[in-house]
Design brief:
GO terms for molecular function: peroxiredoxin activity. It comes from Actinomadura darangshiensis. This is Carboxymuconolactone decarboxylase family protein. It holds the Pfam family CMD. The chain has nine helices and no strands. By secondary structure, it is mainly α. It has one domain: AhpD-like (Up-down Bundle). The chain is globular, with a radius of gyration of 17 Å. The N terminus is likely disordered.
Length: about 180
């Protein structure tokens, strides 16, 4: 599930060595572990410092339900063929109650699984943003029946953020911590 061939998966940058971590990187890794996404982006300290607050808010301080968040992230990881994002968020999704069957179904068309209307709305938004860069009026109206203003804004920004991360992870060839 890589954007390029498996033989080309050599990272373009090694993760930042621990002896070069600043206080922000140390704090983040103390909280979530020395993930390669963190220690690779930390090679650009100013960008990393700006990004980590935004990313943390979306992941840990947002207004979307955990289920909606992980459905949107995994659907985006699937669309962007981002193995790193998929592998990490698969574990998060299991932890917030998604089943293995549901996670596998995120690689299928939404009508190929018995999604609830609420889940289908989130997946449709992710699909539409991926395909056309926007959400249709019909999908927006449907989402608006259950999500408030903050959640609607957040959903679009979450999906966009995980597209950005997928581009970054794929282009920099960031590997999972197990080397794959």
């Amino acid at each position: 599930m890589c954007a390029d061939s498996p033989g080309n998966r050599v990272p373009r940058f090694d993760p930042l060595p621990e002896e070069e971590w600043d206080d922000v990187v140390k704090a983040v890794t103390a909280s979530i572990g020395p993930l390669n996404i963190v220690t690779t982006i930390a090679r650009h300290p100013k960008l990393f410092h700006s990004w980590i607050g935004f990313a943390s808010m979306l992941l840990m301080g947002g207004t979307l339900s955990d289920r909606d968040r992980e459905l949107a992230i995994l659907r985006t990881a699937h669309h962007r063929s981002c193995a790193y994002e998929w592998d990490h968020h698969r574990k998060v999704a299991l932890g917030v109650g998604l089943t293995e069957g549901e996670i596998a179904a995120l690689r299928l068309a939404p009508d190929e699984h018995g999604w609830s209307d609420e889940d289908r709305m989130v997946l449709t938004a992710a699909d539409e943003l991926h395909a056309g860069g926007t959400v249709s009026d019909a999908t927006w109206t449907e989402l608006s029946t259950r999500l408030g203003e903050h959640q609607l804004i957040e959903l679009v920004m979450l999906i966009g953020h995980y597209h950005l991360l997928a581009f970054t992870l794929n282009a920099l060839r960031v590997q999972n911590e197990d080397g794959h």
